[in-house]
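User: Structure please.
Assistant: Input sequence and predicted structure:
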Amino acid sequence: MTQDINAAAAGRFTFPGTGITVNRMGYGAMQLAGPHVFGEPKDPEEARATLREAISLGIDHIDTSDFYGPHVTNRLIRETLSPYPANLTLVTKIGAWRDDKGDWILDCSPDFLRKSVEDNLENLRLERISIVNLRLGGPEVDIVPPMQAMRKMQEEGLIDHIGISTVDMAQVEKARDIAPVVCVQNLYNLASRGDDSMIDMLAENGIAYVPYFPLGGFAPLQADALNDVAAEIGKSAQSVALAWLLQRSPNILVIPGTSKRAHLRENVAAAALKLTDQQVTRLDEIGNVG
């Protein structure tokens, strides 16, 4: 029944020009790795069970990256889910790597991007990847050379579609001049609302917006209004925050991550939660930037 609730309540989204349609409630694989997204999970069997349950609950969109671990989440996904369900869309991201201390090293050079795609293909055991997000380090990074490299790999058939991550509006516009962009993945949640205008622009163009750290990331969301609304409807604050995102705009896809089945079920159930207009207004004030 949860699968039907997920599809009917939160709705589905079709990435533009792709024919790929997914439930708007997805799953982020980052937390399958060890602490600080580095090394092996504390409980590998629970991590694998969580992946299997995600599929059974109707999740058909998994967000991952080879720099989670590194290589850990992709290996777990492959070992647990391959051969993959026909309706499963795997989305990865490139543009960084991890050193032996676990630090995140950004690299958008064309040669590194190609090697990253090849590593993802190998570790996920795929011949091509449905969607690859190019992750930049901020507005100061020139998006043109890496986007040209992405377009070349698309033309060669290594990737089907291109997304971009950690970008501002100017970078989005430059990227779209080079190749079609099907999704944007940025930091956004109830308290971090800097992308409000971008979300509206993308919605007008039918482009998906996928917020990372939808629940605050390493600093979980804390707000009196959020806790008050959660208490009123008898749900967790995390569920309310996810429901708010799903009601914020029809082009928003959420990918909350967890390595535990109980938490996964709670996240998926948020797709069936309907907030009133008055509750949404109160929640909007948490991160209202005018």
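Residues 110-124 form the longest helix (15 residues).
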